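Reproducibility note. Readers wishing to regenerate the assembly model reported in the main text can use the exact inputs given here. Chain order matters: entities are listed in the order in which they were concatenated for prediction.
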Amino acid sequence: MKRIFQFVLALALGGLLIASAAQAEKPVVGWLEKVVVFPGGLALEAKVDTGADNTSLDARNITEINRNGRKFLRFDVDNRQGQKLTLEREQVGIELVPHHKGDDEERPVIILEICLGKECRNTLVNLVDRSKRKHPLLIGRSFLLDRVLVDPGVQHLAPPTAQERKNR
Amino acid sequence: MKRAFYSVLLLAAVLSPSAGATAEPKQVVGLVETIRVLPGDLIVDAKLDTGADNSSIHASDIVEFLRDGEPWVRFRVVNREGQTQVLERELVRVARIKAEKGQRQKRPVVMLSLCLGKTQREVQVTLVDRSRFRYRMILGRSFLRDLFLIDPSLKRTVQPECPDTKEE
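Running the prediction on these inputs yields the following structure tokens for the assembly.
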């Protein structure tokens, strides 16, 4: 009897593994997720937006620093849940954001590692004042492409698993 | 021992995704899909946008009028082949659209029955000026949720195949 018990248990677990493997080609994330950004390891509420080309972070007090002829940016990030961080990243570009009326907006672009669930990716991130937006981070297709499926009906499906990682 | 055997079977049934799931599996669709507006033969390409609460469509010549004392809207839409079509719908509400530089625009909202793949759903659609954008229609979360997962790396995975209720 004990052998039958073990057999059924193995069968059940095996079936579970096969079923989950078939589903898990690309992980599914919700349209709102808590993500972790590196360096710093700050957890931020992010809107996962298939309609956005790129990724935008709410950054304040942006100052330019010249370091050996390379332009770095120092800026403050506030997760709006009691944690703040000051980061220094090299500016790697400028993003032109077209506006309906008048001039295009220029946003400085840096690279951050963003971890959404188990997916961590070095991502081009433009810095902008998002104080009028509900969420400090907008994750666009530059992060999502070929990595995840987005479920427009659920939130917080993929809790961050990278929080324990050391600051880099 | 027999009780343990049955409890394992029960556990397997509950944990197994196929047996445990009561809802239909959500259909994976791409970033851009062909949509049919029902009733009628209006076919448009839409961008599936998890960052948008609601859907919107490019409309021109918007005229509000009264029909039997109720506010209605007459508007012109352009299909994928460039042909225009005039639709009339009851006004559901007026949306205040966020625009740049603190401005807000008032836009009429109507109910439209939309077909994506084999799924038909009637949702609120805001009539907007999208003449400067590549896609004439945005499908937001109110249409997509509970039924679809978005893979932002795919495009045009399905054709609209809903029965036209008007013809039946």
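We highlight two features of this model. Chain A touches chain B through 36 residues (CB under 8 Å). The mean pLDDT of chain A is 86.
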